[in-house]
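Batch job 17 of 40 flagged for manual review because the log was empty.
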Amino acid sequence: MPALRIPTTPLFALWTALVLLFLFAPLVLVVLFSFNTSEISIFPIRGFTLEWYGRLAANTTFRAALANSFIVAGATVILATALGVAMATGVHRYAARWRTVLRSASSVPMMVPHLILGIALLSFFNIVEADLSLLTVIAGHSIVAFPYVFLIISARLVGFDPSVEEAARDLGASTLTIFLEITLPLLAPAILAAALISFTLSFDEVVVTFFTTGTDNTLPMMIWSMLRFGITPEINAIATLTIVVSCVMAGLAEIAIRRARTTADRRQ
């Protein structure tokens, strides 16, 4: 089958540039205005300043919201990754007949709009009479992140050679030893990628957080509350920090995924 050739005409290059400009221009503007000396986000930019970042550093509400975001994202990584790895491994080993059905079912939280998911979670917490707090936010974020972890780990397990585990079992290794010494190291790059993606999803989540949070705000919720008074330089600074964290985590996740693919190709 002949390889697919991407046209390199000037028109195609122009179209690609326009698409990239449409996608990234708003982010670039947010970053630029976060360093603008003017309190109004308009051109021309009057000067360069770090004043707005200094105000954020001195803002106790911002520090508390940032700490809450890291707490929620960290707990989400642990919970979603543990559940995703356990389910992906179990489905791959013991549910070959139901593999497709279970993978489709696990993707439902990814396909359902977050608005509907948030309302459903709020109704559930009301039924069980659970007080809204960071714990309920962690539960909601874990549901959002779980499908991504499951699918990433499942994709890695597709190229996994079961004969390695069978050989270890024949040599007398227990199931726990096999998992810790063989399976887990082979899944490590995929687990790292899934964990980083989970962190990014949780750190940026707004809709589910809105329906599941109590009195403790996360960083996206703080931004949402500040928008009632208009777009201020502090909002641009917070958004810039969020963009930086998200880009770093996404970049690390991409590196981990590529390493996992490279390791799988070498073992085949």
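Reviewer: the log was empty due to a logging misconfiguration, but the result itself is present. Residues 60-267 form a domain with the MetI-like fold fold (CATH 1.10.3720.10). Unflagging and moving on to job 18.
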